[in-house]
Known about the structure:
Chain A: It catalyses: Cleavage of peptide bonds with very broad specificity. Chain A: It comes from Oncorhynchus mykiss. Chain A: The active site is at 44 (nucleophile). Chain A: GO terms for molecular function: threonine-type endopeptidase activity. The complex is a heterodimer of chains A (288) and B (138). Chain A is α+β, with helices and mostly antiparallel strands and 288 residues long. Chain A has helices spanning 2-7, 19-32, 92-113, 119-132, 174-184, 191-208, and strands at residues 46-50, 54-60, 63-65, 68-71, 77-81, 84-90, 139-147, 150-156, 162-164, 167-170, 216-222, 225-233. Chain A has a 5-stranded antiparallel β-sheet with strand order 10-1-2-11-12, covered by helices on one side. A 5-stranded antiparallel β-sheet of chain A has the order 5-6-7-8-9, with helices on one face. In chain A, strand 3 and strand 4 form a beta hairpin. In chain A, helix 3 (92-113) packs across helix 4. Chain B has 138 residues and is mainly α. The longest helix of chain B is centred in the middle third of the chain and has 17 residues, at 52-68. In chain B, 4% of the residues are buried. The model of chain B is unreliable at 1-11 (pLDDT under 50). Classes of the chains: A alpha+beta (288), B mainly alpha (138). At the A-B interface, helix 1, helix 2 and helix 3 of A face helix 4, helix 8 and helix 9 of B.
Amino acid sequence: MATLSVCQPQLGGFSFENCKRNAVLEAEVTKLGCNIPSARKTGTTICGVVFKDGIVLGADTRATEGMIVADKNCSKIHYISPNIYCCGAGTAADTEMTTQIISSNLELHSLSTSRLPRVATANRMLKQMLFRYQGHIGAALVLGGVDCNGPHLYSIYPHGSTDKLPYVTMGSGSLAAMAVFEDRYKQDMEEEDAKRLVRDAIAAGIFNDLGSGSNIDLCVITKGRVDYLRPHDMANKKGVRCVYEHEALPHQTGNYKYKQGTTGVLTKSVIKLDLEVVEETVQTMDTS
Amino acid sequence: MPLSQLKDSVPVTGMGPQVGAYGVQDTLRSGFSSVKNELLPSHALELSEKNFQLNQDKINFSNLRNIQGLHAPLKLQMEYRAARQIQRLPFLQSSHLALDTLKGNDESISFEDILNDPAQSEMMGEPHVMVEYKLGMM
């Protein structure tokens, strides 16, 4: 640090000045028995599916910080460009910043080429950036959109590998969601079927994984139209037990108060209290 | 025994004693030396990030040479060298507009533009020392 400020001008970007100090601090703190604050993760269920005319992306809305729910209704479907949206799992700050940087770069790129951006471009930009940082940026993404070549869906892992598939899931609830997909996915579904499939997959993640919860957000992208449905379905309302398919209405949490008249009244006596005025003062209020 | 023979295999650029005059550690300018500090980088990404731009340029130039012949990278490097000379003195912020346009950095945003922006840094370099270093007078 001393050398750089003396001789050479400073460079932008990540600064590794405090890494050694942090490593020493971490060792000391574990000896004392406390914990260093952990990053907020989005331990999540996100998924996407390609249907006849486009893409349906789905995500839950819970953000966790260790064992605590940090945000009950966070938005995990990020805007990349008017025809491309991206769901993010992993460290919340990393997914947020990564998608914003790529969105800015895609905007500049599309202004320079005067064309609507392609999903493959966003995919390549993301994978090159994530590989450059060797997985230290913890962002697992599901990227989907419709461009001049049709609908495309990619899954991008934190180390920079990508897969182009008709249906993908990511996050801690990905296995539960993938089970639903593997059972009911068909090629060239209609929009309503696709929305129902994604909703059920996210609901499977919400109910079977601790890191996912709250509501279900959907984003339907077709050529020329984007429906951002937030919330599409409130699977976990506070105070309401969940709806099962065979029950018509959600029932309230049990009411454990006693009815009026449960305790019998034996006698009743009313004593009037006489209050005398001791002191009376008037305080003017400043109403300017 | 010279330090480079103590290291394992590949000489790692950027890590090594800051050698001043007479081939000895320059304590006045680079501070106290410690073997542990110099042999290992403090973070896995530190070295790769420091040399990232240089390595990218090397890859691009060698590709260009293989595709279009020797003249292409030579001409580009000549233009880079000319653009790099249009700058303020080292302790002031210069915009590097010509260099950025040549490299294509004017159409992309990355962490270098968002984090740790040198234009916003709270410390200014020492003017006399920096100019002397740049002119090779020290």
